[in-house]
Structures are given as C-alpha cells and as structure tokens.
Write a structure and sequence with these properties.
alpha+beta, HIT family, subunit A, 17% strand, 2 domains, single chain, 5 helices
Length: 189
C-alpha cells in the first residue's frame, strides 16, 4: 500500500519528479511567495525505514528534561525550550527517553492532564493570541509535544505554518523568555 501511495503521488508529479504546490501556498498565512517556490523531487521508497532514534545521551529533549522543567504530571513534564522567537515555546515530554508507542495505557490520562494544563498556562500568558500543539517525534525517539504561543494580533503567524515562521523569526530576549517561563511555572504550581 505505501509503495502504491508513492506511485500515485509520482503520477501527479512533473517530469523532474516535483509535485505542484498545494492549496496551502494560497493561504494568506503561508510564509512564502508561491511564485518563487518549487517542491523537492519525490524520494525513493525506503522500507525498511532507517532507525532515526538517537540514544538518550544525544537527545536534546533528555537534556531539557534534566534542566528546564516547568511542571510535572506523573512521568510527563513541561520543559522550556532553549530559545524562542514567539511569545513562548515549551514541550510536554516524558521524563525518560521513550516514544508514544511505548507508553502503557495507564499513562494516557496523565498525558492528557499535562497537555491540557500546559496549554492553559501558556494561553494565559499576556500577549498570547493562541497556542498551537504539535507532535512529530520523527527523529530523537523521545515523546515530545511542542507548544507554540502565537503573539496576540500577529495573524500572519496563524495555523500550521507557525513552526516555519518560528524558525525564521529572530529570537526574543532571554530575560523576556525567562520571565514568561516563570509565569508558566507559577501557573502550574
């Protein structure tokens, strides 16, 4: 089925293997001008997929769990990001190096509480318009849900492109970021 999926996609590609830009390129919040973009060619089918997990000693989330905890729920923690260009950025993660598929069902309720409480604490920060929650877990092997706080009134950053904007914007001042982290910590205490 996966190989059929890739062949179906290739049938829609141009002779160089590039798909046309999707409808997202027409969104008013899309961060790029569509006329100057082109997609990368589709890559080859790769099964078995390579193992992209890193050992705990090379994991950025493991380091953050040991240094930047703002709140705790069972085996889940909210950790402050190393830096941010947004109103705030943090991660709900497991306190140990495991993926979502390795969690026993009895931990799911704590995960829900961690996500809900973290969302509410970040959304309550001054000058936050909305909080976006994303989970990719496509590399380190450490369960991590990222919370991105969109600055109030900056509507161009709305939606699923917020992480792209966050990567391009200049970082906010460390003292401002630390003060917001302290407000989140207090809200979760």
């Amino acid at each position: 089925m996966s190989q059929d999926f890739l062949e179906h996609a290739r049938a829609a590609a141009d002779p160089d293997g590039r798909l046309p830009l999707g409808a997202m390129a027409d969104w008013e919040v899309f961060p790029f001008e569509a006329e100057s973009l082109r997609t990368r060619p589709l890559t080859e089918y790769a099964v078995p997929e390579p193992d992209r997990r890193r050992p705990p000693e090379e994991c950025k989330v493991c380091r953050a769990v040991n240094e930047q905890v703002l709140g705790t729920w069972g085996r889940f923690v909210l950790v402050r990001a190393a830096r941010t260009s947004l109103a705030f950025n943090a991660t709900v993660a497991t306190s140990e190096h495991v993926g979502l598929d390795e969690l026993p069902p009895e931990d799911h309720a704590d995960l829900g509480r961690a996500l809900g409480a973290s969302y509410a604490a970040v959304k309550a920060l001054p000058e936050v318009g909305n909080v976006h929650l994303n989970k990719w877990e496509n590399g380190a092997g450490h369960l991590a849900f990222n919370l991105y706080a969109r600055p109030l009134g900056v509507l161009q950053l709305r939606g699923s492109n917020l992480p792209i904007w966050a990567d391009m914007l200049p970082p906010i001042a460390e003292d401002e970021f630390a003060a917001r982290a302290e407000l989140v910590r207090q809200a979760l205490a």
